[in-house]
Amino acid sequence: MRAMILDAPGKPLRAAEAPKPEAGPGQVLVRVRACGVCRTDLHVVDGELPGPKLPLIPGHQIVGVVEETGAGAERFAMGDRVGVPWLGHTDGTCRYCLSGRENLCDAARFTGYEIDGGYAEYATADERFCFPIPDGYPDLQAAPLLCAGLIGYRSLRFAGAAQRLGLFGFGASAHIVAQVAAHQGRRTFAFTRPGDEEGQRFAREVGAEWAGDSDEYPPEELDAAIIFAPVGALIPAALRTVAKGGTVVCAGIHMSDVPSFSYDLLWGERSVRSVANLTRKDGEEFLALAPQVPIQTEVATFLLEEANAALGALRAGETKGAAVLAVEPSA
């Protein structure tokens, strides 16, 4: 099969012919139609996340068709369209799993990081961690729902009942969250890199009532803010925008160092919290909600062999919405 392979962090992906995998017990073999390109992929490729499986096929926003089922795998039938997300395995027995927090499982394994992912024509996955894809979403438009959407949805939940919501870093996740927030009757305020007028225009197009630079103040205090950009300096910036009792949610898996800031930014019962991974319950809830909004994903399409270009565009902040690899040309 065609695949894009990471041999070592910090190096470009290598186009190669790799062995087609086989479905093991409890697994499905998925013929990949599309795979979203996530900032987490960038962190893996750039060496900002430690200890990836090497060599590695990245990619964890996989949309494809079940082509083979392993022994004991009965959840999906041949030909079913499924999505494969970041969370690929948990032990199911630890205190986190047993308390509904499987996203924190110490034995968790992740697609495109410790398990080969979707930058290839085929991928295997534990059927228990796959999702049916909602009808009405073409493959390319469905792919960003599987991480950008899921992490955004979990982050929005942790923002509580905030009516005035700030979104720092307006990319794949934020453009989905803005639509969900509008559906829920919330007001959104978008913050982009200074001078990114196109990004601010895009934010207003998908529902933000105000958009400005990340070093600006919004026209009124916010109840909560979600930080999608991996920039630690945005934490004190976001704290300056939220009212007393407000929450700042850090949505990324990696962030640059957080600079020191004065306690008065945190005082007034403000809080800062992170969001880690996702649970299968998040996926079930969000994928049921997506058609109700309905969420429309903006995608920039790249061919499988253009994965390095897609990662480069994401690194440079040149992607409007989400980047997606069309693994099958008709995807």
Automatic annotation (TrEMBL):
<dbReference type="Pfam" id="PF08240">
    <property type="entry name" value="ADH_N"/>
</dbReference>
<dbReference type="InterPro" id="IPR011032">
    <property type="entry name" value="GroES-like_sf"/>
</dbReference>
<dbReference type="GO" id="GO:0046872">
    <property type="term" value="F:metal ion binding"/>
</dbReference>
<keyword id="KW-0560">Oxidoreductase</keyword>
<dbReference type="InterPro" id="IPR013154">
    <property type="entry name" value="ADH-like_N"/>
</dbReference>
<keyword id="KW-0862">Zinc</keyword>
<feature type="region of interest" description="Disordered">
    <location>
        <begin position="1"/>
        <end position="22"/>
    </location>
</feature>
<dbReference type="InterPro" id="IPR014187">
    <property type="entry name" value="ADH_Zn_typ-2"/>
</dbReference>
<protein>
    <recommendedName>
        <fullName>alcohol dehydrogenase</fullName>
        <ecNumber>1.1.1.1</ecNumber>
    </recommendedName>
</protein>
<keyword id="KW-0479">Metal-binding</keyword>
<dbReference type="GO" id="GO:0005737">
    <property type="term" value="C:cytoplasm"/>
</dbReference>
<comment type="similarity">
    <text>Belongs to the zinc-containing alcohol dehydrogenase family.</text>
</comment>
<dbReference type="InterPro" id="IPR020843">
    <property type="entry name" value="ER"/>
</dbReference>
<dbReference type="GO" id="GO:0004022">
    <property type="term" value="F:alcohol dehydrogenase (NAD+) activity"/>
</dbReference>
<feature type="domain" description="Enoyl reductase (ER)">
    <location>
        <begin position="10"/>
        <end position="325"/>
    </location>
</feature>
<dbReference type="InterPro" id="IPR036291">
    <property type="entry name" value="NAD(P)-bd_dom_sf"/>
</dbReference>
